[in-house]
Amino acid sequence: MDALTSQLHEEKDKVLAREKEIRDLQFKVKNQEDAGVLAASENVALRGQLEELIEEHCGLKHAEETFDAEKAMAVNGAKVVARRELMREWLNQQTDKWNSAVEFERYKEVKTSEAQLQGLSPPSFDGEPSFPGDDAATVVSAPTPTGDPGASPSA
Asked: Annotated region Disordered: where (predicted)?
């Protein structure tokens, strides 16, 4: 009988150990399920952020693609307006206020600046015609020295 009692206690201990092991495994499974739910919700949030960033990237890419065209249209529009104003002055015979030499100097400055902004070498104006009073134009457009009144402008 003692042998049967000890065998019964051993079997009972084995069953209790198995039950404890099963409870531990069930607890681990529940923790894994909770971690999976948490990871899934985090994944949904990250996917939403990714979608927003993709949309923003597409918008910026589109803006980049259209920027050059819009800039060219704005510049061409400004050129058209300037040409129209010049033609109106010419047709109304209001050209007496034009100073060709000064305007040509401004034109050269603009073209040189455009070339620098575009990373190109500055244009050469060697073959361009000279205007009467070309020397006067450079004196008129030159900045006035603000230093010592007795000092030479070239110094």
From this structure: 112-155
Paired tokens of 74: 């704005």
pLDDT-based confidence at residue 57 (cuts at 50, 70, 90): very high
Cα of first residue to Cα of last residue in the chain, in angstroms, is 126
pTM to 2 decimals? 0.38
pLDDT digits (tens, 9 = 90+) for 79-115: 888 888 888 888 888 878 777 788 888 888 888 888 8
DSSP 118: T
Comparing CA positions, the residue from 75, 143, 136 lying closest to residue 100 is 136
Chain centroid, CA 152 distance in Å: 47
Q: What would the two tokens of residue 4 be?
A: 């049967």
For the chain, the structural domain boundaries read 2-122
Question: Token pair 């000092």 is at which residue?
Answer: 151
Which residue is listed with tokens 């739910």? 37
Q: Which of 69, 68, 72 is nearest to 80 (CA)?
A: 72
Provide the 8-state DSSP code for 92. Answer: T
